[in-house]
Amino acid sequence: MIKRSKTFKGGYIFQRYLSNPLDTLLEQGIPEKVIIPLAQGFGSEVKLLVKKGDKVSAGQIIGRDDENVSSPVHSSVFGTVEEIKRMNYFKRELEMVVIRADKTQKDYLRVEGFNPDWAKLRQEELEKILYLSGVTALDREGIPTRFKSSVIPPSGVENIIVHGVGSEPYNISLELLLNGKKILNLIDGLRILNTIMPGANMYLALNSRKQKLLEEINKIAVKYKWLKVVPLEPKYPQGYDEMLIPTLLNQRFPYGYSAANIGVVVLNIQAVLSVYEAVCEGKPLIERIIALCGPGLKEPLHVKARIGTPLGEIITPRLNEKLKSRIVLNSLMTGVKLNDLTLPISRTFSHLIAIPEGDKREFLAFMRPGLRQQSYSHTFASSLLPFFNKTADTNLHGEERPCISCSYCEEVCPVGIIPHLLSKYIKRNMIDETLMNYNIFNCIECGLCTFVCPSKIPLLQHLKEGKDKLTMQGCDHAQCILPYFDMKGIEEYRGVTKL
Amino acid sequence: MQLVKNILDSLHNASQKNKLLGMFKPVLNAIDGFFFGTPHVTSIPHIVDPLDIKRFMSFVIIALIPAVLGAIYAWGLRVIAVIIVSYLFGGLIEVAFAIARKKEVHEGFLVTGLIFPLILPPNVPLWVVAIGVMFGVLFGKEVFGGTGRNIFNPAIAGRIFLTIAFPQIMSVKWPLPFTSGLGGFVHYQNSVDAVTSATPLALFKTQMLLTPYTQLFFGQGTGCIGETFRIGLILGGLFLILLKIVDWRIPFAYLFSVAAFSFLGNQFLHTHFAPPLFQLLSGGLLLGAFFMATDPVTSPFTKQGRWIAGVSLGVLTVLIRGLSGYVEGVMFSILLLNVFGPLIDLLVLKVRYRKKIVTAQK
Ligand code: SF4
Ligand code: SF4
User: Fold this and answer.
1) b/e map A7-19, b = 16+ CB within 10 Å
2) Which residues contact B186 (CB under 8 A, 6 or more apart)?
3) Is the pLDDT of residue B361 over 50?
């Protein structure tokens, strides 16, 4: 049943940006060598099973740890282990396996026990396939199985939310992920998850502006009573767990903890498709579809790349050489800037965004009509003519000024806190319980407040600073959450969304 | 463009060598930023809204243009002289403080400098304008630490100061406006001895006379420079609301409560309270409601606070107009609400965040 699209208070709907990825998918092919981090996605670092000089196959498990919360890691190519080294990978010191690839072999080993007719498999077998394929490490808290792949067991799950809302400035194309037969695969993936977690309600949340897709999916979904298809406005940050849960389940979110702690599993579309591929095709998680977007590229599109492929190999040849671009991982609002392009891609990558570095000055910048400007206010011509795609660059578009209390930041804040007030307290170094009372720990760091501020105040940065200082003084977010929630999951992992 | 760049570059060099000139660095930087924008880049988030304070303030000025044109038509080219004096002397104070604080010159003054002349009587002597604007910027804003920290709206502070210091000049002689032909566009000012008349509000107060509404609407009545061309003010105000530059709550609540309370007052005490439409269209109400009560810095920032402020402004204005010795109450009400704004916010926050905790414990 399609219901009226639900939404939340605050937030901001981004109009379409220039250079959203086209619906084409290219094969990146097998790289010269791959670098495979031993912790990818949700889970702690796994124990190495190979040594230097070993021959490995694509799909072979090269790291596994059944004691701790984790999922196995595979080699993504056929080849020889060239080196094992520890290096810094996104702020974590990790063991990395460097494998020189045999470029002629494009195949991979299937996961043991897979079956195209998955209904014949028992629940335990399904869980095992998912675990062995590494799919269980996807998304913020992984997929629960009896193999310690998440912090809660499958029986502890009350709700599953699968979403493809696409509320970010740049989004992977749903039409591409779900073209042709893939819709059926998605539904099968959902049914597999339902078999593993039979007690849970399942919500499939999709972008309410993709009517065609919604109708198609709905035609199939009506057959399943446990499945609800919900259209959602693509309002940023709707795709966050913190927003999906209040909107869909009318439940409060334990800010600072993870959805799993209240018995909810949140997955995205690509993860569910991987579930299907693992169970029915025996495909281990060795490939990702990555959306390459942004005006810094010659042509925005999607590529399918083996995990461990160095970033540079994917993106450098596709960059527009005339522009100096900044490359950002996954999200323009919250993603990290990628400076070192020798780093490999991991299971968590879904978008690579290149936008021109806006360090050039513009003559009379503030007087431009702004046909292609994305603005919260309606002071640009783009408000009258919304069908022009918007440009994106990293210029600050103005000098930092004192706060004028325009309240834009309060209006957009999705969790209803008052960023400018908190920022003033923090800047005056008034760090005490008042901040906690004003719910500073509810901030989900979506960055919208900084985005809209006409005075260009880095509010998000101030808020982070404030949280850190408060924590140092012994005020913890646990104090705001634990008394009010009945938390599930393994105690020591509580509040950890990235292991 | 290249020319501006060259001039600025040479000035920059000069200011680096010469100590005295170096003091004017903030001014140079302001001009530089005005023409060329910023080279700074974002951190996280990687993209930001292109709206900045310069554009924000420019739109307030654009919204005032109809009212200014109407004022020039009604009162003659002298209005331009008044505006220039206001910008010049107010700017002086602003720059002096920027230099003393070694901070940049902020854009907020561009709006103050234009609104201030609009709330003065048409034949105000230029030296009074200079004194008023300097007082307003100095004590309304700079003593609190500059833009963003001020409690009072500087234009109103200046105006109230003048009312108290020079009551004669500020309230007695009201010239008649030009009403035909090219009017003020070709005259410096209406001849000094032209018949003067009281403002519509004063006429009501003393003689219970109601000025016709069309006269009020199209700026053919007497009054302060910028407040009489009301159709222009309404258009400007709606423009700002549509662009999200000002919040609709304050003007709406303000005007609505003026209408409601003057209706009540008029029912029971029609000798003191003028009927609603007349109240809405007379005095400085529209200018105040759309352009001054909405000044984000000095009005409450919470939504509920804005409703409270709007309604209280309306009540105060009607009461002052009806029951006090003063003819007009808009400026005083806004000044008063400027004082209580932070308190209103504090109360609203108290209520809002206490409620949260109660629901959380359930
Ligand atoms: S970053 Fe935090 S404070 Fe800012 S809008 Fe997002 S949730 Fe609100
Ligand atoms: S958006 Fe910026 S200027 Fe406006 S209230 Fe928030 S911090 Fe202040």
Assistant:
1) bbebbbebbebbb
2) none
3) no
Angstrom distance (rounded) from CA A464 to CA A453: 17
- Any B CB within 8 A of A405 CB: yes
* Token reading at B229: 């061309």
* Residue in this structure with the two tokens 């004063």, named with its chain if needed: B202
Q: Name the residue among A320, A266, A323 with its Cα closest to residue A139.
A: A266
Q: How far apart are the first and last CA of chain A?
A: 37
**Which helix (H) or strand (E) is A68 found in, with range?**
none
What distance, in Å, lies between the first and last C-alpha atoms of chain B? 64
Helix axes B53-75, B108-118, angle to 10 degrees: 20
CA B90, B94, B100, B103: dihedral to nearest 10 degrees? -170
ipTM summary value? 0.84
HSE toward the beta carbon, residue A67, CA cutoff 13 A: 3
pLDDT one-digit tens code per residue, A35-64: 988 888 787 888 888 888 888 888 888 888
Q: Which of B178, B155, B166 is closest to B79 using CA atoms?
A: B178
A453 neighbourhood in chain B, CB within 8 Å? 48-49
| Residue positions counted in chain B | 362
User: A464-486 pLDDT, tens per residue?
Assistant: 888 888 888 877 777 777 777 77
To probe the interface with B, which of A338, A367, A399, A455 has the most B CB atoms within 10 Å?
A399
Burial of A456 (0-12, 13-18, 19+ CB in 10 A): buried
In the block, residue with structure tokens 């009517």: A211
Instruction: Count residue pairs from A and B with Cβ separation < 8 A.
Output: 191
Question: Using one digit for the tens of pLDDT, what is the confidence trace for A388-439?
Answer: 777 778 887 877 888 888 888 988 999 888 999 889 888 888 887 778 888 8
d(CA A247, CA A161): 11
Q: Given A370, A402, A438, which is nearest B50 (Cβ)?
A: A370
DSSP annotation string for B259-298:
HHHHHHHHHH-TTTS--HHHHHTSTTHHHIIIIITT-TTT
Q: Assess contact for A284 and A59: CB atoms under 8 A.
A: yes
Q: Tell me, using a 6 A CB cutoff, whether residue A420 lines ligand 2.
A: yes
**Banded model confidence at residue B358, pLDDT cuts 50, 70, 90:** very low
> What pTM, to 2 d.p., does this model score?
0.87
